[in-house]
């Protein structure tokens, strides 16, 4: 049972050559081809050993028990036990009749007359079938049974089952006055590259394919094709990346695909070094616009004259590579006559994507940060003692120095839009196209208020850079000075010199 409003994994692609029933099972004896599993899953010699396996695309603690080394079988087992706890609490407190389960007796769910949590021999009979179902309880019980009755669920599509069990628990919690099971430490979804439930991978399901402008980064097979052929074509929707998205072959040393450089939307080509793994990262983490494309869109237009042909230019998400290389790729909008910093090389050993981020879990190696900075709280880190935002606090982290400037830029954008463009503007980071017309001036996006359409070139440049700062949440670390420069210049251009009074431009 899939809950309304929730997104779920599609077919499990696993790895090439092992995506269909008879790829993994002998079609006559039905036995699992365990010896072939062992090529990638070290230490597997029996079917029982398979219970201890998990992939590098499944690194979350799904059942919240603190153990991310246990196999997916045990993650699902933990969630299923949590679901039974929630079902029994709900049945007793909401439905008013305790419930118990027996895997061996139809119809499986029975009235737990003595409320001991177990379907005793005298209870596990059809005459004692559970009869106090509510829709919410039935949905959860159905998913409990779905999971239990596929003993290979942990291999067939484990993260689909994670979502079913998690959502069932969450639904039961909603139906009670107080949650019966704490999901605070549990996880429903994976990190971005492997989150098959997330919009970046589920957006095109109704279309049946990911179109060519998007498939390089939003499908499992787009990047390998691009690296091999230099071409981008439509691809099938995927459950996030596969091993072979970034790896040349399976098992052994797991060699990565080779990329020597990356060409950004501005036309600039940069590299972390020949064959560097981080070159794979910046094939996608580069944004989709640049100073070049913004200038092209605004060519010949007067700075402060609204023009209905102007449309918002969106940098897209997580343009970390563009931030890191700064003016070398001009991912942000750079104002004419200003100078900007180039690649942020930080310190040796910590100047490439793969040196600071876990390539599978995507987490930041904050322990290593603490070696020099004395803290694992990256938002508190700074190097230069300058009070960039002019708020009198030169000890706050660079993240907060930028946040003050970023907030000031939004205020200046709103003031300019109302006074110069003649239509108030409002920003929503979660709704495309992000900037909307606030025609009634109430500071909220109402149903009848659509995309902002009264752009002037000056307003668009500032809005572009505001979005740039919002859509790379790690920009303060990737290249903090570049981020401050483009925000400061945007603020001064749209708000005048007074808008940056007390602030300092790097």
Percent helix, as a range, is 25-40%
Number of E strands: 6
Radius of gyration, whole Å: 27 Å
Q: Assign an overall shape.
A: globular
What's the SSE pattern?
HHHHEEHHHHHHHEEHHHHHHEEHH
Overall mean confidence score, pLDDT: 96
Strand content: under 5%
Report, as a whole number of angstroms, the end-to-end distance. 55 Å
Spatial arrangement of strands, main beta sheet: 1-2
Q: In DSSP terms, counting alpha (H) and pi (I) runs of 4 or more, how many helices?
A: 19
What profile does the largest beta sheet have?
Answer: 2 strands, antiparallel
What low-confidence regions span 5 or more consecutive residues with pLDDT below 50? none
Features:
506 residues; mainly alpha; two-stranded antiparallel ribbon; two-stranded antiparallel sheet; 36% helix; 3% strand
